[in-house]
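Take just one protein record:
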Amino acid sequence: MKTFKSLGLSEPLVRSIVKSGYTTPTPIQAAAIPPALNGQDLTGCAQTGTGKTAAFVLPLLDRLLPASSTNNKKKWRPVRALVVTPTRELALQVAESVRIYGQFTGLRSTAVFGGVGYGAQLSAFRGGIDIVIATPGRLLDHLGSGKLDLSKVEVLVLDEADRMFDMGFEKDVRKIVAAMPRQRQTLLFSATMPPAIQKLAASIQFKPTLIEIGEQTSPAKTVTQRFYRVAATQKNDLLLHILENENVESVLVFSRTRHRANRISRRLQKEGIASAPIHSDRTQGQRQRALADFKRGKIKVLVATDIAARGIDVDGISHVINFDTPPQAEDYIHRIGRTGRAENLGEALTFVSPDEVAYVRTISKVTGNRISRDLYPGFDHVAETVAESAEVAPARNKHHGNRPAWKKKGGGYKGKKKWKGRPSGRRK
């Protein structure tokens, strides 16, 4: 059995790992740490919840250790490592891991993201920082103002690279890479490896070691998946029914939009269920308080959008509920990966309204799993015929059914403007 010490990590890091309560590396950690320690560029692909953060944080800290004792005597020091993440929550999560694993190293680190003032971040830069963990937007702000220098960076880490592409950060990432020396180590980690990520890796890495753990398109085997068909108007009632009748400890509910997340949370609070929303419209303080309350068990249900999901790393989430079925299979895999982490068991429930059936087919095709949509036992569903009839209805004109606007009864033809779609251009 491999141990963290057998992977070649330095004594201060092994000591911090033991103090944290970990004894055995996960497969992605066991595979990624040795080549990363040897200074190789690396592309790591593994499912959410498999320990990717420690897989890059530990070798990063180890690489910076030899010169840290010298730098500690200096008031100012250059940035030697940069970790780029897609969201604020993920930046904070990585920063916490750096703090925990680096507690005996003397290395300094800080998290840099938007939604907060610049003062504390600039103060940290002036004091000297070894490791910066940042989101692309705020990082580019500091680079543009000349307040941050990346010319001495030795290690670059791109975390959750697929999500950064989904959020439109490709150009930002390339600008950041251009601000760093060509001679560096680049570690790229992602839960999925679409062609766009492969292209990016090829352009910024040198002969990288590719490590793939598990199937990219398969959710963790520790997660039990259930799909329930339900009318869109009954989703709130079904959510309440499940929370009242199942043995749930902590629940992460995913909503497609920020406004719906707010409405879900308000409805739960009205019913006496402690809940809070977390999404991009919330201030950083509100998001951090909601996440902290969720971790402490002060609130039972956290309602999130996909943009906030990547930074939610909470042990012991018993259930993930997809209030809205995600259109993309990759988002589905990431969502349900919030439960069943570290080989623990978890439950993933997905509500499927008639207009979301096509999304389920996509998820089934990508994951290779045959998905059955059932009625939730004991729940008072609306008439089955009404809900199912919408599944086969053809796409409808946004104005009036399937009829073009010029055929609409009582249509609003005015003046001499020709009606598009009718050859004569004139109503009869």
Summary: The mean pLDDT is 84. The radius of gyration is 25 Å.
